[in-house]
């Protein structure tokens, strides 16, 4: 009977909309006071005394067994009234909730306002995607400003932590030279169970001193160097806890080293004396920082001597050519350099390359020091200088050669066919130089060219078109 009663109770909870009488004849039950009242009306239904608990239910006689077909069904049909046991059957007052039901009906924790609150740790337990700035025990990477990156290995954290990166304005109070921005990585003071790695990219590496990552606990706190590895243009430091970080190095900057190199050279080669000497020392760092990039400064530090340094610097300030005693290279170095610059930066002059080599070679042989000064210029400076000082060169570089190629070929063939008169300037020129002068630069004039084209079959008339 106890087994039947428990089965009935379980069904009552699951159905929950009504209660089926167990052990009765199928009549409806009056629900009052939260208890099932069963009336005894002679139909087989029994009245359950209020003071009888389920634990007091009598045990059926040994010869009274539950038919197999009733083991899973607690309802008793009217014609199947159980034998009189001598006691009324009492149903339980309170319906117990089985463990399975508790699991299904559990209420999730809510915040103070009744809404669900999920932290990064909750998401990790649910195997959900963490916020971009959160890392848990499995490790991960967090990216910060200007390419900074915090790499956290597995096992470095025992819980999920949400990290933050912030640039620090004017934080530097150390003795090192700055190579990067300063970053404040939070939560401040976070300790790692295993060393993390902080990567900070830099724009340049110093010519002297060893670049490292420094750390400080905040504003006006001392900076301490961290174990740092240089990987190309990135500094990789070992980090045990979070605070402020910045890349730098102990020593002079490349600009300061360059000025230390240049000033004595200017004393030697340029006659630099006071008060210009003191002014140069004061202005040199600012001048180079504003006028030159780190990529331009680095090779200057590698120059062999003062002459080479001043020659390289003259590319950025041509006044050094006039102010300093700069030794230029021989013509066999300067001529090919100048011609190469013309062809590369003035492509329309390319058809006259041989003529330029011959003409520039002659000019250099007459004044090697003067022509050699072109070698201290960049290619763009050379072409600009020639264009600004010669309208014919400017026209050739801008619009192209002065005489069309077909007409130029006819004229040059005729110069080869007709020997130059004695004493003529053409007798001192090769056809390649004539081509550069006449066809490239147009220095013979349009009228002379038209006249010569009309007199191709008459050598005397042909040369008469070009007055000396």
Care to describe what's here?
- This protein is of the alpha+beta class.
- The protein has five domains: 2-80, no CATH class; 134-249, Chondroitinase Ac, Chain A, domain 3; 254-323, no CATH class; 331-399, no CATH class; 405-464, no CATH class.
- Helices cover 37% and strands 15% of the residues.
- The chain contains 17 helices and 14 strands.
- It has helices at 2-15, 99-104, 120-125, 254-270, 276-291, 294-301, 306-313, 319-323, 331-345, 353-366, 368-372, 379-389, 391-399, 405-417, 431-440, 446-454, 459-464; strands at residues 30-32, 35-37, 134-135, 140-143, 149-152, 161-162, 164-167, 177-186, 191-201, 211-216, 224-225, 228-231, 234-241, 244-249.
- A five-stranded antiparallel sheet has the order 4-5-9-13-12, with no helix packed on it.
- α9 (331-345) packs antiparallel against α10 (353-366).
- The longest helix is centred in the middle third of the chain and has 17 residues, at 254-270.
- The protein is elongated, with a radius of gyration of 50 Å.
- The N and C termini lie far apart (142 Å).
- Residues 1-46, 48-89 and 95-118 have low confidence and may be disordered.
Produce a short descriptive summary.
This protein has 468 residues and is of the alpha+beta class. It has helices at 2-15, 99-104, 120-125, 254-270, 276-291, 294-301, 306-313, 319-323, 331-345, 353-366, 368-372, 379-389, 391-399, 405-417, 431-440, 446-454, 459-464, and strands at 30-32, 35-37, 134-135, 140-143, 149-152, 161-162, 164-167, 177-186, 191-201, 211-216, 224-225, 228-231, 234-241, 244-249.
